[in-house]
Amino acid sequence: MNKKLNGFRMPAEWELQKSVWIAWPYNKNDWPGLFQGIPEVFTKIISSISKDQKVNLLVNSDKNEIIKFLKLANSNLKNIRFYKIKTDRVWLRDSGPIFLINEKKRKKLLLNFEFNAWSKYKNFNNDNKIPNRIAKILKIKQIKPTYNYKGRLKPIVMEGGAFDVNGDGSILLTEECLLSKVQQRNKNLKKKDYENFFSTYLNIKNFIWLKKGIIGDDTHGHVDDISRFVSRDTIMTAVEKNKKDKNYKNLKYNLNILKKSINGKGKKYKIIEIPMPKPIFIDNSRVPASYLNFFICNKKVLLPIFNNNLDKKVIKIFENFFQNKKIVPINCKELIWGYGAIHCITQQEPKL
């Protein structure tokens, strides 16, 4: 194990957060024909978080126009800090840094993964510089994870939406995202290599490999659309009841894996099934609408909803589980046209 990382771990999302990092939307190509409504969705998300905790907002240019949006939504501007950092896109879950903590040493570290826009898009140079810029702002030591390929050290390409941790040594991943030849991030890395890497850098001991993600997901299988830890021993997972739906088989397969999986203490997880919303098509393209792309803050859970007949049922499930947090439903029917929702645009910075 990399000695520098002994005693460091990635906290779970529900652990105490110091702030949340978000980038303001500018790229109209990510929401063709629907961009005009997107700043309003971001405003709702930022405003809701700002009521209870700090938001660090990355902006490309003048912030005055953005402040007008935030004021209209009654945001707590005292809790919002603006940083002029140029971005290509807004998906900070994937392009932003991963924060690690060491409670004994009272230290924080930042992992700066290589980002290549999911091995799909060409414009990612600005996004790839984000962790480095944040490390300098926070004056936190950063580590750039690497792997050895034919005697040469290569940076590991990784996105935060590709894995989910419980803060206690367990991780959720998908084979489709990390092991497929399609949109391949790291050539020649096998399952064992990924397990060694997560063990070294995130202090992971227990691996739960799911098979595939959902239809319409242009990341090719991110786990944060299908299965998420909501406590150390509880996993919420997407299920599809319609046998004719393209997601039915894959999600059922994943559910069976989860039912058999065990935690670090050898006990089975509690599994909470979350129904998939009715399929949403925009411009004849099926988008990856999923209730699992929620974000847990200090006092709230921001839950994507889709003007769907299942919205109320899912809100109830979340209210029953997160009894000490407020559930804030956010309509993501237009946001999802960019192929991401609330979890995709947020990146939490843990509090020591």
According to DSSP, the number of beta strands is: 20
CATH architecture classification: 5-stranded Propeller
The biggest sheet, with number of strands, parallel, antiparallel or mixed sense and barrel status, is: 4 strands, mixed
Count of helical regions: 11
Report mean pLDDT, rounded to a whole number.
96
The main sheet orders its strands as: 3-2-1-20
**Per DSSP, what share of the residues sits in E-state strands of 2 or more residues?**
25-35%
Q: Compute the CA-based radius of gyration.
A: 19 Å
CATH topology: the name is L-arginine/glycine Amidinotransferase, Chain A
- Which residues sit in consecutive blocks of at least 5 with pLDDT less than 50? none
Short recap of the structure:
The chain is an alpha/beta fold. The protein contains eleven helices and 20 strands.
Description:
The protein has about 350 residues and is an alpha/beta fold. The protein is built from eleven helices and 20 strands. The chain is globular and about 50 Å long. The chain starts with 16 loop residues before the first strand and ends with a strand.
